[in-house]
């Protein structure tokens, strides 16, 4: 079966007894749960089939593709590349940092002495507003089109030494507010179709400057990943009559196995189909398409869950955890009552220590993504660590 034609096993016919045991669940969801229990180690053809012991494939319904899971390989000795330990000693202010307040950037522009957050147009943007329209012609095999865009840089704090995990929740709320304001000003441009709010954290992910910052890239077309997800959301709605992520939130809440942290408005899980060892999916409990639909308490809740999630990541190996993180929101200029459900992906490269990373090579480049550690084991590791940052261990009486 290939991705596009994948279908779950036919729903198990539910007995009347089971229906009356849980009158709140939707029939479809209960059917899926029953199938899921079978897949996750219940009885299958009279045999117990524990997923944690056998190589298997899992299906990612958002990307419509399979991931190979090989849990038996997890204890293999590591003889591959080892990175240097991540640095944990940045100064509060770095006179040579182009993001610190008051410092000079490229082309002689000087940053203001900002005290909270600060955003500016990237001095070396990948996309520009002024790109003229053009398109290739003459061959369907040599296709190119002009792409306009805007690239913004967003500083999370004037402090050079902080990370999202080490910031106060109130300061993270200011970051959420800035993401929303920046996103809305980009969405006001009539030709912008999509904008991705993202952060690359740590040298392992290509972020050479430790100053806490992210980016927002707005584009004239919908990029590959959200385009693929938009298709998946629409297909799930058409075939099941419900939102894919609302249904998934219900499943994860009931199973309570892969939830890393949660609050009244957000849920962070290691998804069943995770590719990266400690990958998480963060999504709103409420069915909304974009950040600007969050009400005041939900914005506080987003700041809260982000700080807690990133603290757990840092505490896992007691080192700053590298990652790429970004929000997927519904395409701009589409009706707000669409199929899209606001979520963020966190893709950290670390595998078994702060110095050993996962590489996407070989079979993964040529075939399918593959992982050794099961998503359930990864979730368990993240559940076990504290939500108090390791750097605060020696500090008494610090309340968040
Ligand atoms: Zn700096
Ligand atoms: Zn939804
Ligand atoms: Zn997504």
Fold and architecture overview:
The chain has 400 residues and is an alpha+beta fold. The chain is 26% helix and 18% strand. The strands form 4 sheets. A 9-stranded antiparallel sheet has the order 5-6-8-7-12-13-11-10-9, with helices on both faces. Strand 14 and strand 15 form a beta hairpin. Helix 3 (169-187) crosses helix 6. It is globular and about 60 Å long. One zinc ion is lined by residues 94, 97, 99-100, 160, 211.
Give keywords.
binds zinc ion; alpha+beta; 8 helices; 3-stranded mixed β-sheet; 400 residues; 18% strand; single chain; 16 strands
Hetero compounds: zinc ion
Count of extended strands: 16
Helix content: 25-40%
**Coarse morphology:** globular
**What proportion strand?**
15-25%
The biggest beta sheet is recorded as: 9 strands, antiparallel
Query: How many DSSP helices?
Result: 8
Order of helices and strands: HHEEEEEEHEEHHEEEHEEEEHEH
Mean pLDDT: 86
Span of the ends, CA to CA: 49 Å
Strand order in the sheet with the most strands: 5-6-8-7-12-13-11-10-9
Task: Describe the structure in brief.
The protein is built from eight helices and 16 strands.
Topology:
Elements: H1 16-21, H2 27-39, E1 43-44, E2 47-48, E3 56-60, E4 65-69, E5 118-121, E6 149-155, H3 169-187, E7 194-201, E8 213-219, H4 224-240, H5 244-255, E9 259-262, E10 266-269, E11 280-284, H6 296-317, E12 323-328, E13 343-347, E14 350-353, E15 356-357, H7 363-366, E16 370-371, H8 375-384
Parallel strand pairs: 4-16
Antiparallel strand pairs: 1-2, 3-4, 5-6, 6-8, 7-8, 7-12, 9-10, 10-11, 11-13, 12-13, 14-15
